[in-house]
Amino acid sequence: MSRIKNLLFAIIGVLAGTLIALFLLELALGGWIFQDAWKATRSLNIVRNQTIHYSVESIYGRGAPKITYTRDRNGLRGRCEDPRRIDVLTVGGSTTDQRYITDGQTFQDQLAAQVQQKLGRELRVCNAGVDGHSTFGHIAAFEKWFPLINGLHPQYVMLYIGINDAGFRLQPMPERDPEQVTGLRAKIAQAFREKSALYGLDQTLSAILHRGGENRYARHGAALPPEQDYVATATSSGIDELIAANVAGYSARLATILGDIRQMGARPICVTQPTRMWIGQGETLRGLPEAFRFNGVAYNGLDYRASLLALNKAMEQLCTEVGGVFIDVHAREFSPGDFYDPVHMTPVGASRLAGYLFEEMDRRELFTAAYAGR
Fold first, then answer.
1. Which pLDDT band, with edges at 50, 70 and 90, does 368 fall under?
2. What residue numbers bound the domain in which 318 lies?
3. Strand 267-271 versus strand 325-327 pairing type
């Protein structure tokens, strides 16, 4: 009996010592005593000072080379060593981030390459996309992230958005829009995300392993659905009211973001997004049976289409009103091979997107204006 007691006391002692050690590490390495503004960006899911190699065989097939995903000290992706020299800062969610496209092949990198090749000039296009971010997260980025980047003064801020707002983002999503919190419980959770050293370690591991709980419409899938899976032929009942409410909230948040861009001294470029949530044209439109869920109800690809088109219309109006540039990429032609799932692009798709952006920006003489502003 005494041996069992001794063993129990030893176990209790080890556990107590471990808890005390973790507590001391939290105090020493976390932000509970010494404030660090960069730690607050962890609640925005910002990845910094990381070079990660991902296997993408499940997406591109056996033998596909690992991709290299790099974020610098400021949390930016691309050639962004000197933030004062950034010409175009791109803001958006996972379709802007492009976690499964290697450095040098993102649409930002390919746009810069096309400018170099066709115009013989350098254009620095930097990637500030963050997986899961909607307009809720973009507002928080302008408030808490971008002011920390010394010298950040781009000529343009390109908003490649809409995908993550189309699924009826009437309220913030937990863990995806952490800045928009109310209530004591939520505020305590946010403080832990911003200050905890253990949470910081978990975020690093999450970036390496790419864990996440995204909604269906934002999740990275392993394959593009075959055409026979597109079986929805009509929108759901009662969707118009939900779309109207979603557009109203989105418009208010977008207006805030456009104001933040102007406050930064930049000009907004608002770009719509293509998807494969539906296929066909006119009366032959067919959507996926479940594109996203809202309040426990599944909505199909045609619901998603109606929602996204309404957001695009609001984007065009608001962006034009503030003197921004509206580029309707959604209306351009893409092929199934441009996507590895219904919303995320392959390197081929990123190249096609970069080509469309180059055409529109060159036609509107945005490159000329960018060089004149240097």
1. confident
2. 83-171+218-372
3. parallel
